[in-house]
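User: Can you predict the 3D structure for this chain?
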Amino acid sequence: MQMLKICLIILSVIFMAACEGETPKSAVDSPNVTVENPARIDIAPGESAEVVVAITVASEYHVQANPSADEFLIPLTIVFDEHDGLHIGKPVYPPPERHHFEWSPIELFTYSGKVLLPFQLSVDESITAGDRLLTGTLRYQACSYFICRPPKQADVRLAVRIVQ
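Assistant: Here is the predicted structure, written as structure tokens:
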């Protein structure tokens, strides 16, 4: 049954794209999602702080929410690399926008516009002072009403200064 749903979604997208023509080249070449890296965080050993990564989805696009409406859809995810003495909590994904597109047999959960992804950063008490760079990856698939772009990844960077 799930495979049938996915096949219907794919066929519907292909059909709608064929009926409406191709996506303009400018939409294909422009970035669908941009990441706004947070400002540097100054934090002392043993403390924690909320950090927010903001992304902007281009106006003609949406990305799948996390969690997505179906296991075969690619949800927006953000994952940070491990770093000694710094601990990143799980991001808090916002509530989804719910859409029932004519071509979809299921209601889709999406994000559009500006999306804020907050998470907790905590620092071990034993960490030494200095600058650190946390890196991570944002994974998404941007879709317009008629077509989905291939899944992409974007780098996320968070500068952290450990202060005594």
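DSSP finds two helices and twelve strands in the chain. Confidence is low (pLDDT under 50) at residues 10-29.
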